[in-house]
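Q: What changes when adenosine-5'-triphosphate is included in the input?
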Amino acid sequence: MTYRIGVIGGGQLARMMVPPAVHLGIEISVLAETEGSSARLAATQVGDYHDAETVLGFAKDVHAVTFDHEHVPQDVLRALVDAGVEVHPSPEALFVAQDKIVMRERLTALGLPVPAWAAVRGRDDLAAFLAEHGGRAVVKTPRGGYDGKGVRVVRSADDADDWFASLDAAGASDALLVEELVEFRRELAQLVARRPSGEIAAWPLVETVQRDGVCAEVTAPAPDADDALADEARRIATVVAEEVGVTGVLAVELFETADGRLLVNELAMRPHNTGHWSIDGAVTGQFEQHLRAVLDLPLGDTTPHRAWSVMVNVLGGPAQGTMADRLPALMADQPGAKVHDYGKEPRPGRKVGHVTTTGPDLEDARGRARAAVRFFED
Ligand SMILES: Nc1ncnc2c1ncn2[C@@H]1O[C@H](COP(=O)(O)OP(=O)(O)OP(=O)(O)O)[C@@H](O)[C@H]1O
Ligand SMILES: [Mg+2]
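A: The predicted holo structure follows.
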């Protein structure tokens, strides 16, 4: 027999599932939003993932359906399950990742450490939260945010008026999420994968740097992370994976506070930018592991190949030409750099690729990754 997997969403995450699918002999098909998507190298069907009929047709002959993003509506997910399709992660698990207020509620109920938070329905609620938390806070739209869009630092109750107005305009009963502004020492991420039958595998805890709300650089493993910190991160991710019933890759974004505590920022139930290093840096990369997990196959070894891996995102891309135009010069200068080009139109701030380097010395690996990415910047 041949394993067949269907991926909803045609972004770079779907694209990066293709090479390990090819290696493992898995047939992979993608339901993409548009022609010419980043995942166009797979067998691609263009269609609307909001439409149950389209999604059911796409999922007809696959062993499992998984996702490039978490935006597929619950009724469409339920229709798949009702039709007997293996959906991983499940609608129940994805529900927790689709809405940041639901996520905060669930994490709180699980007794996991999170920033102080509240659901606010108007400026009076927000003013009360600000008064309690030193006059500064972070407001987030519960749904549809990515790369820092939908995240705003506020210092006055007026600062979210436009977002409250658009909630009203949408006729939504929703609220906005408000959180304490965490004075973190750094941001970390813990990735694990879990099979439907229960097996879990974790990669090392990593350090992540965000610029303008977008992941810019990842170091694996996180420098200066002692065993207690690494154990706590793994414990948190394991509790979420098991209690929420996550299948596939789970990413837990974390803040490390000045006094060494971990707070959960957010969850993603799919391969994640902070795990891209593992493609080149670990025995089993996150995209291969995701395929194995959602097909309920035994998980792979997550051990890093080298002491250090550094991943730097290519944001925006060359103002003139494409990443491909710059490759010969980069390759000549940085023969150890592993370049990933997502095949996307360069646009300011857009993630169009990444570079990973590995090696025994952190500063050297970091220097080489940064030098490589500079070839794509004008
Ligand atoms: N409560 C907070 N305190 C301080 N900084 C925060 C807080 N919440 C978010 N941030 C900063 O904003 C970034 C983006 O926030 P968040 O991860 O919630 O948004 P997102 O747009 O969903 O991100 P992603 O790109 O991971 O999908 C965080 O990585 C962090 O740097
Ligand atoms: Mg985030």
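Observations recorded in class: Residues 227-244 form the longest helix (18 residues).
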